[in-house]
Amino acid sequence: xxxxxxxxxxxxxxxxxxxxxxxxxxxxxxxxxxxxxxxxxxxxxxxxxxxxxxxxxxxxxxxxxxxxxxxxxxxxxxxxxxxxxxxxxxxxxxxxxxxxxxxxxxxxxxxxxxxxxxxxxxxxxxxxxxxxxxxxxxxxxxxxxxxxxxxxxxxxxxxxxxxxxxxxxxxxxxxxxxxxxxxxxxxxxxxxxxxxxxxxxxxxxxxxxxxxxxxxxxxxxxxxxxxx
Amino acid sequence: xxxxxxxxxxxxxxxxxxxxxxxxxxxxxxxxxxxxxxxxxxxxxxxxxxxxxxxxxxxxxxxxxxxxxxxxxxxxxxxxxxxxxxxxxxxxxxxxxxxxxxxxxxxxxxxxxxxxxxxxxxxxxxxxxxxxxxxxxxxxxxxxxxxxxxxxxxxxxxxxxxxxxxxxxxxxxxxxxxxxxxxxxxxxxxxxxxxxxxxxxxxxxxxxxxxxxxxxxxxxxxxxxxxxxxxxxxxxxxxxxxxxxxxxx
Lengths: 228, 249
Prior knowledge:
By secondary structure, chain A is α+β, with helices and mostly antiparallel strands. Chain A has helices at residues 7-24, 49-61, 65-72, 85-88, 91-99, 132-153, 174-187, 191-204, 209-217; strands at 29-35, 40-46, 76-78, 104-112, 115-124. Chain A is built from nine helices and five strands, in the order αββααβααββαααα.
């Protein structure tokens, strides 16, 4: 889900998410790695140059928590890099992370079903085991990142720090994903592109995406291969 | 457990169900496959009319993760959107709810839900909590119709199904202590989205109902020993031809 012309609004969305992560969780730094669904498209956001270079290392070597989270599609939680057997396998990355004074890292896929938009990674300079409540906060922030990136891709540009357009609900409903599956057939688009198409249409006609999805499922609305 | 049937076809069906459910736990665990087998077993073994499974998400809201039919899905979505019903109560209290819908108490407790259920000719409901010690993660809803009220031993069987599902979802937690409940529920819920995506794709491609489209996928996977979620993901990502699934008998 990437496009050069969307770099600026995307940066604003990711900065907002990263600020919320630092504000609400006992972490120090945040990075976001983006994926276009087929291959990694690279680091897109970092709170400091230090973690940016760490993410570059992960991206280049194919080793590290964010790369694992992207590949496996599940969160990768490392409360203490010094004692983690898993972290020991990320040779080059681990050395670089410890050099940056990082002790804990938690990486969350930014995803919805078969769509993986990227990874939201949080770093702490002290050992940090997230408790269940903190984990839920982190998972919600990864969902918000997904919705924010969806807005950017749909051309629903953020005008302020907290403007989320008209996207209703914290998480997209099952119906929306079912409708997106139908739209892939109608348009020949990939599943992530189909979801973007639904979101863009909902915004254009000023209706909730759940209503557009209901129309698609009921056969009242079809999408065509050529964008009008 | 001594009240469970010990002979006859039902005994065999029950044994087969637990073998199938435990099989899903041993290798290449696929949460969607387990959920689907579970709600299907409620129909096949417990003679239920329809069944559905809900899990709590990281916002504390219940999400429907499996249903034996689209009609069931509509009813459970109704329950969630109106915030009343047996599944919600079973989850909130951690206790099983077993109610005949014609009882006056049912209409008092859930006025809107009871009306909706009656409109679907459902006569009784069992809602079984999914819990591990103090932790509650969801509930299993089992509905019967036409005066066929569930017996106490059937409620215990349904609870055993719910327990298997709970253990399945939380099993990795025991294996790797750093992996936590919210993360495991999230993984299960996200895998559920893949199923919604593929249902839409297959239904549109084959011009089928969603139930029929999912039945084709289930048949395709079971007859070839393929995991449901991985296969669904391949179809959605364009790595497997949907027509090969739609043509499966």
